[in-house]
Amino acid sequence: MSYCLIVDDSAVIRKVARHIIESLEFETDEAADGSIALKKCRENMPDAVLLDWNMPKMDGMAFIKALRQEENGKKPKVIFCTTENDAKHISQAITAGADEFVMKPFDKTILETKFQQVGLLD
Amino acid sequence: MTPDQFNFLRAFLKEHSGLVLGEDKRYLLDSRLNPVAKQFNHASLSDMVVALKRPGAQKLSDAIIEAMTINESFFFRDMTPFDNFRNIMLPHMLKERATSRKLRIWSAAASTGQEGYSLAIELLEQKSKMSGWRTEILGTDLSTEALAKARAGAYTQFEVQRGMPSNLLMKYFKQQGAEWMVAPAVKSMVTYKPFNLLKEFRSLGQFDIVFCRNVLIYFDRETKADILQRMAKQMAPDGYLVLGAAETIIGLSDAYKMVPGVRGLYQRSADKAAIPAKAKTTAAASDRWKAKKATAIPAVKPRTARPLRAVASSSRTNLFAKNR
Predict the structure, then answer these.
(1) pLDDT over 70 (residue B59)
(2) Preferred mutation among A74, A106, A113 to probe B, highest tally of B CBs within 10 A
(3) CB count, 10 Å around CB of A46?
(4) What residue in B sits closest to A94 (Cα-Cα)?
(5) Are B152 and B258 part of one and the same domain?
(6) Whole-angstrom Cα distance, residue A37 to residue A58?
(7) Among all residues of chain A, which has the CA nearest to that of B173?
(8) pLDDT tens across B178-192, in order?
(9) Residue range B134-161: average pLDDT?
(10) Residues B101 and B10 in one domain
(11) Could you tell me the residue range of the domain that residue B16 belongs to?
C-alpha cells in the first residue's frame, strides 16, 4: 500500500484530506508543520506528500526545498494544497519541485484527478 | 425544507463541489435530490438534510453531490480517452492525412466546453508536428446555456482544477479575478453550436474523430442505434468514435469495430459502413471535405501507439522541466 504524508497546520483540513486519501487506498500520516514532516520523511520516505504552504515553524516552501535535498527526497510526489491561488504561487511551487498544485477548497474529485495525473493512481 | 436547511445545503454544496446554488436554481433540489432521498429512505428532503448533518453520512453526502453536479464536465475527463487521442488517434491521422493536412473533430456532447478545449490543448501540445494543418473542433450540445459558458471559456477555480494539470493551466489559461480564462489560441480552435442529436447530421459535414461521451445513456436503445448509424455516415472511413467509459456499441451498431485492447475506442468498419446511396448526398453536402477524400484517405492502417507515447510524455516532462 502506498503511503501519503499530509502536512497542514489545520487539524480539520488534515482530517478531511486523510479521509479522502484513505478512500484512495493510501496509508496516511499527518504532520502539523514542515519540520515535523521532514523528520517523518527521514524516518520513512512517503510516496506522496500533500503539502500546505503557510505553516508555523517551517512552511511548505522551505519544506519542499529541504526535502528535495534529502537522500531519496526526490521519490515522493509532492502536491501543494493551499489557499494561495494565483499563477505566481503555482509556478513558484513547481519551480521548487512540486509535482502538482491544488487550490483550496478541494474535494475528492480534485484530489483524485491530481493523484492520477502525477501517476499515484492507476 | 426550512430556509435554514436550504442554506445549510447550499453551503454544503459550495464547500464540497464548488457548486453555487442560487435561489433561482432551487428547483434543482427537488428534481435532483428527491430521488436521492428516496434511495436513502428519507420521507422528505428535510429529513434527508437532518441525516446529512449527522457524522458518518459519507455515502449520502457523495450521492447528493453526484446528483447535483451530474451535468458538470471535467477537463480531460476520465483521462484514458485523451491518452488514446494523443497516442492512437492523432498519430494515425498525422500519418493518414499527411497530404490533406486536415483534421475535423466533433465533440458531440460538448456541454460547458471542457472536452473541446481539452482536445484543443492536446493539439497545441503537438503543434510542432502539425505545422500547416487545418484543424477544426466542433462542439455541439442541446443546451444553449451550457454552450454560452463554453464559448465564454471562463471557469471557476473548482472547475479548472477538475482535470487540468497545473502545468497546462499555467500555459493555456489566464487568471482574471476569481476566474480562469481559456487562452485565445485555445478558444479559437473550437466552434460551439447548438444541435440536437435527434436531428439530421448532414449539415455538420464529415469528421475524422467523434467524441460522443455520456450522452447516449439518455436515449432509448432504438434511438442510440439510430444515432450511431447516422454518425457513422458522417465519419471518414477510418474515423474514430469515442464513447463514455460505461458505454458500448455492442448490439447497437455494426458500422464500427472495436480497436483491439482499447476500451471505449471504435473505428468505423470500412466493410460494413453504412455508406451507399445516402452517404453520397452526405459527402456532397460538404464538398470542402469531399474533395481530398478519395486521395487522402487510404485504407485503415494498424495503430502505431507506442512511439508517440514516449514523445508525448517526454515533451510534457520537458515542459515541466523548463519551469523548474
Answers:
(1) yes
(2) A113
(3) 24
(4) B324
(5) yes
(6) 9
(7) A87
(8) 899 999 999 999 999
(9) 91
(10) no
(11) 3-68
pLDDT digits (tens, 9 = 90+) for B90-111: 999 999 999 999 999 999 999 8
Domain count, chain B: 2
C-alpha cell of residue B271: 466493410
For chain A, say whether B57 makes contact (Cβ under 8 Å): no
Question: Could you tell me if residue B203 is left (phi over 0), alpha (psi between -120 and 50 degrees) or otherwise beta?
Answer: alpha
For the record, the C-alpha cell of B189 comes out as: 480552435
Percent of chain B clearing pLDDT 70 (strictly above) = 78
Is B170 within 8 Å of chain A by CB? yes
In angstroms, the separation between the Cα of residue A46 and the nearest Cα of chain B is: 22
User: For the residues A40-59, what does the mean pLDDT come to?
Assistant: 97
Of B15, B16, B161, the CB nearest to A103: B161
User: Which pLDDT value is given to residue B271?
Assistant: 57
Is residue B323 one of the residues assigned to a domain?
A: no
Please report whether residue B11 resides in a domain: yes
> Cβ of B170 and A90 within 8 Å?
yes
C-beta of residue A34 within 8 angstroms of C-beta of residue A60: yes
Q: Touching check for A83 and chain B: CB below 8 Å?
A: no
Q: Name the pLDDT band for A51 (thresholds 50, 70, 90).
A: very high
Cβ of A113 under 8 Å from any chain B Cβ?
Answer: yes
Q: Are residues B64 and B208 in the same domain?
A: no
Q: What is the ipTM for the molecules in this complex?
A: 0.92
Instruction: Judge whether B80 is closer than 8 Å to chain A, CB to CB.
Output: no
**Cell 491561488 found at:** A85
Asked if residue B212 and residue B185 are part of one domain, the reply reads: yes
Query: Residue B24: pLDDT band by 50, 70, 90 thresholds?
Result: low
Which residue segments constitute the domains of chain A, with CATH numbers given?
3-114 (3.40.50.2300)
The verdict on B268 and B153 lying in the same domain is yes
Same domain, B168 and B298: yes
- Considering only CA atoms, which of B41, B103, B114 is closest in space to residue B71? B114
Is B138 found in the same domain as B63? no
For residues B104 and B207, is the Cβ–Cβ distance under 8 A? yes
Closest alpha carbon to B247 in B89, B90, B109, B40 = B109
Query: Is B259 inside any structural domain?
Result: yes
CATH code of the domain in which B148 resides: 3.40.50.150
